[in-house]
Structures are given as structure tokens and as C-alpha cells.
Fold this protein.
Amino acid sequence: MNKKELKAFLDLKVAQYNHPKFLESDPIQIPHRFTLKEDIEISAFLTATIAWGNRKSIITNALRLMEHLGQAPTDFVMNHTNKDLEGLRPFVHRTFNGDDLIYFMGSLQNIYNNHDGLEGIFSKNPQKGTLQPAIAEFKKVFFELPHAQRTTKHVSDPEKGSAAKRINMFLRWMVRDANTGVDFGLWKKIEPSRLSCPLDVHSGNVARKLKLLKRKQNDAKAVRELDDNLRELDPIDPVKYDFALFGLGVFEKF
């Protein structure tokens, strides 16, 4: 396919998958259970944090996590007691455990009390065309409190070579418009043009088959390469193609 044909093909797949029915099997359904802005972004961040492995397991454990937070994530983050935190210890999703979750509660409280919330941090580090430096800065802020070293692996850093798939996915959820009922469009200070594709094994394999990506590793360099090619197809909303790449890989075994 030439570029015009490729864009037409991918635009068709975006229309197919950027649709409310996408919610039925995707972790983004978790923040859709809330209406308060802070509840949406906190539940989305926590869900994205554990979004690796089997999607059914991710959704099941994210629902369980919300139960631990009393279905009120903002209230829990801002007003938890030590006894409340102890109730989180049984939680586990793969290598993310109760100790990690307890730190996340304290760090999120610090972020909302002292850093103008999650949106505030990502909005303070503008760089033309990309949010990857803002992600690296976010990790520094997130771990400015005393913490166990093992917990740091649950927040990725593009400056250390990570594709930061889960944070890029979270940012897509928060920034892209809500016109189709999938993403939220909550954050108005960040342009969708600066988003990066949440690169994983599925989207990476499809991108290589479509010659949008040459690099073999799914790392920060691959994200930059894919970003450049997707922005040629749509410089305003390049990450809409995440729906096409992911849908082709997961649902169509492309």
C-alpha cells in the first residue's frame, strides 16, 4: 500500500474500533464507571498501571482494586487512614502488590495536595511534539517520597529506554476527545498531537507488517519512529491509529 492507501485503510479501522463497543473488553471500561474528574483520572491511572498480561485478568483485578478503594478513589486517596492502607495489603496483580499500592496512595495524595494533580504534572513539562520528557519528569515527582526501590518498576521512564506503554495509554485516555465515547478528553491543556502510541507486542507487530516501524524492539526508539510515521498520516490526532493497530492485532490476528 502507498501512503494514501494505508491512511484510508487505517482510518477505516479506527472508525471500526474507536467505538463504545470497544469498552466491553478493554480496561478503559473501569474509569468509565465514574463521573468526577479526579475519580476518572485516578481510576484510569491505577488501571493503566496494572494493564499488562491477560486483559480479562486486568479488568477483574482493576474492579477488585476499585472495591478496595470503596468505589471512591479520590476520597480514598485524599482521606485514607493507616487502617485503610492496611486493608490494601492483600491486593496483587502479577508483580504489583499491596505494598506498591500503599505507596501509590501516598504518592497520589502528595500529587493532588502539592502538584496540582496528575494533569498539573504532565501539563508543566511542555515540549513540542512529544510528552515523553513529561513522563520522565512525572516519574521523578511520583517517587519523591520515601519508597521501596522495587516499586519504581511500576512507573516507566522513556529516558531510560522504555516504551512506557501503560502511561502513554493513560495519557491517550485523558487527552483524546470524547466524541466517540471511548477516550475522555478531560485534559484540555495538552494537545492530542503530542501523544505517543501505546506500543505493545500487538501494535508493534502490526506496525511492522504495515511498514510503519522498522525497529525490532518495542522501546523508546521504536515509539519515536512510530510517532513520526503516524504523524505523517494525521499530525493533529496521530494516536487515533492505536485503535487500528491494536484492533488489527488483537481482534483480527493481522
Remarks:
- The chain has a mean pLDDT of 95.
- The chain is about 50% helix and 0% strand.
- The radius of gyration is 18 Å.
- The first strand starts at residue 92 and ends at 93.
